[in-house]
Amino acid sequence: MAKWNLPPAQTKKKFEIETFKGNDFTNEPANVKSYRSPNAVNMVRESVGKVQKRTGFHTVKTYPDRINGVHYLTYTENGAVKQKKFIHAGTKIYMDGGTDDYTVDPVLYSDANDTISASLQVGKQLIIFDGKKTLVVKEDFSLVTLESVAYVPTILIARSPTGGGTQLEPINLLSPKRTERFAGVASTTVYQLSATSLDATTVEVKKLNSSGGFDTLTETTDFTVNRTTGAITFTTAPGVSPVTGEDNIYITYAKTVSGYADKINKCDVIAMYGVNGSRDRLFCSGNADRANEVFYSQLNNPAFFGDLWYLQLGQNDSHIMGFSIINNYLSVHKDYSPDQTNIVLIDGKLVDGKAAFLQANAYQGTGAVSKRTFGVLETEPMYLTKEGIFAVTPSDVLGERYAQDRSYYLNGKLLKEPNLENAYAITWKRFYVLAINGHLYLLDGMQASYNQKEEPYSSRQYEGYYWTGIPARVLYTENGNLCFGDSDGNICEFYTDYNSLFSFNDNGKAVYACWETEEFYGENFYKDKNFTKFAVLLASAIATGCRVWAIYDGTEELILDYTGDARYFSYSQFVYSKFTYKTDRTPQQIIEKIRIKKVDKIRFRIENGLLNEPVGLYNMVSEYTERKI
Q1: Burial class for 2, CB neighbours closer than 10 Å (0-12, 13-18, 19+)
Q2: Which end of the chain is more exposed for a tag (fewer CB within 10 A), N or C?
């Protein structure tokens, strides 16, 4: 009897992805891990290991000029904590009127710098730095220049009419005015100020009386001023103090020092810091004319910047770009240093009872490239460099601090973006979100990998996502929601209700989202693969579905078109064209038979680009067999 030698049955194998983490734009698709995508767009973490399409955004209000900043003043009214919003658009500062019509928003200021601004609340005041003129929003919501409310320091006390005295306070950079206190002499009529060449501003004199109050004396009537020499001549000698040991003549005058106020006005990067790490003084820098200088204010008084209260860090050929707080230190970031010591730590201490801010150390790290990308993700200070998004963190070996890359998997696309100096970033929920050129790059603080083979000098990398079609110029949050302002004057907010059909459009336009797999070579790269089945597990929704492409041999083949198998019925959001009788809201499987033969490698792209449709990925599998070529 003849015998037939049948070929052995081919064992079915599967290409399966059960975990979806984030993008990997840096490695070649063949080297990307299965849980990352070399080309995922507009996807974001739904839960750890699962992804979903991002929500869309809508325009809340439109101003006539580009948005340079959105700032908030927190206040208390009738026991309730509230916020007032201020919008910097073009050269104007508006106070939000609570409607979608900008014309009802009061214009508080019209001569602002038409560039991105920064702000901090100090006490009950909001301080806005725009690099041109420092502004302050007061408790009554009025806006004035900080110079106009500048503190007038008493620079000398116990001064005799001929000179001397004890220094009490430094000159205020923000104010030409200063006060000197004299201990009067019985018959002396001429009192010499410490300054000459006084301003034309009226000189103010107060004289202590026997009741402990002060009498105001009038210039030209009670005294005359020689502004050239700084001599004050009284019509009648003021006499000695009626209170033993107390100064009885207070003289306030003005002397403008060219460039003093602009040292502060031209700053545009700010932080709150103080002695032992307390947050009670305003620190500022970023003045291009004072590239390596940091200025700081009086305790809880941002209207007083003493002329001696500053630090010079490094050389002026490198610019200070921003601040971070690290434990009890203020970290100052520069853009460049030949020896890569671009991070300087400042330590605030009390020395002889006075606040002193001293350089504690300098650390290695790549220089910052943008002033607007400083933020804290989890516990790590983050900032953008020309080599990626870096964090300042302790070294695992030496216990010292170094800057480490945290965006390795996004760098393949992020670092190709032009004009990185225009990037803007904030932390939102547990993401670090960076905007540049109509794109958002997100680092996920809930998902980190600790494989140092790819980036050996960094202890970990965050998973990252990439969003498109978002023209953000500035980013901010409101009530926990992600918002942005753009160059066309639009204020926009992302939708937050993932269960609403109307949350998945960008101002009425469909949001395209996709997840593309690694380049899959099978168990044996040298064998041909035949793919026979494809299945995907989708998050159920009122309206959802996907299209799947197989990418092989230089072509793309559509293997699955949109289907309603993952939809469920809802009375509250009934859409006739997407009607289904199903009420199951658990993840749903979609299975399709396919015929792809004799390929050595393959990729799959799962996408949804339909208007007002979400998509969420839980699992993906494709069955195949292998045989020798």
Answers
A1: exposed
A2: N
